[in-house]
DNA sequence: CAAACGTGGAT
DNA sequence: TATCCAAGTTT
């Protein structure tokens, strides 16, 4: 991109977006947009939080479930913690769900049920960082915010052929993103940049031949190598034990994990520490036997291998959940895997 | 500020 | 099978 081409580029981008915008449940249609309508800030905020580090495909079903069950920020604010955690189960990064509730309650209690319209106001709420504050301000409130996510970083790095690696190059990329952000339709511009990054200016094999900005792109010949990133550390492997106890009437022993840390606030099976050489730690004395297959699961920064132990005590374990109150879908994916692995060793095939 | 924090799909 | 990585935030 050369100096002076910014407005032509943003105009080309918006023309492309007007003809190619992807339909998503949290967006409004072109006709409504043309009539001056804005999308519901609650739905914009909810979608943006769900989309943090998460693909559109993974979010769709969760967004539908949340908005059907809790149609407004007040409704969500009144929800039980456990219900929200269960509805979020499987989407990952559970701090988002905890902060989602905190944020909804803050908006309901301290802002009269209305989201703040400024970046600074939004930024002060739990779970809303620089990206989400800018996105909600631009998309829901038509504020001229510079929205920079991973897509925008990639598009901008290529447009200006920025070879400095992330994360160090982030301030530079933000500055460049500001240069092509137009005063008009900032929300559409932001979504256009992200749509472009998601569909044309992709990490691998970008479709430069289809790109509305190809004529402005200084990095086109080296697009696939940009943006450069610092190498990632290797993932160590940790091991542990998980204990699945099923009572005579199908009662299941579950525990709520601590708020802080991995899978914080989610429901799961009791278990040991996760270390190189974990010590077994059954929740009570019983005839524990090993499930035939171990559970393998990879987190952001380590691999986990869990030995699943199963017991079927004659009396239901104290505090166990009745069979009717247990749904594997309420568990995070790791714990669903543990449950699935336990089935092979269970005589009372609970399901 | 580097590290922690999930998951599933693509390659 | 292994690696990458997706609309980031918090500490």
UniProtKB/TrEMBL annotation:
Cofactor note: Binds 1 [4Fe-4S] cluster.
CDD domains the record matches: ENDO3c, NUDIX_DNA_Glycosylase_C-MutY
Tagged with keyword DNA repair: yes
Coiled coil, from the record: none
GO MF, one example: metal ion binding
Purpose of the protein: Adenine glycosylase active on G-A mispairs. MutY also corrects error-prone DNA synthesis past GO lesions which are due to the oxidatively damaged form of guanine: 7,8-dihydro-8-oxoguanine (8-oxo-dGTP).
Limits of the HhH-GPD domain: 50-199
Leader sequence residues: none
Domain of life according to the entry: Bacteria
Enzymatic reactions: Hydrolyzes free adenine bases from 7,8-dihydro-8-oxoguanine:adenine mismatched double-stranded DNA, leaving an apurinic site
Keyword Iron-sulfur tagged: yes
Keywords tagged on the record: 4Fe-4S, DNA damage, DNA repair, Glycosidase, Hydrolase, Iron, Iron-sulfur, Metal-binding
Family from the record: Belongs to the Nth/MutY family.
Protein name per the record: Adenine DNA glycosylase
EC numbers, comma separated: 3.2.2.31
GO biological process: base-excision repair; mismatch repair
Cofactor(s) the protein requires to work: [4Fe-4S] cluster
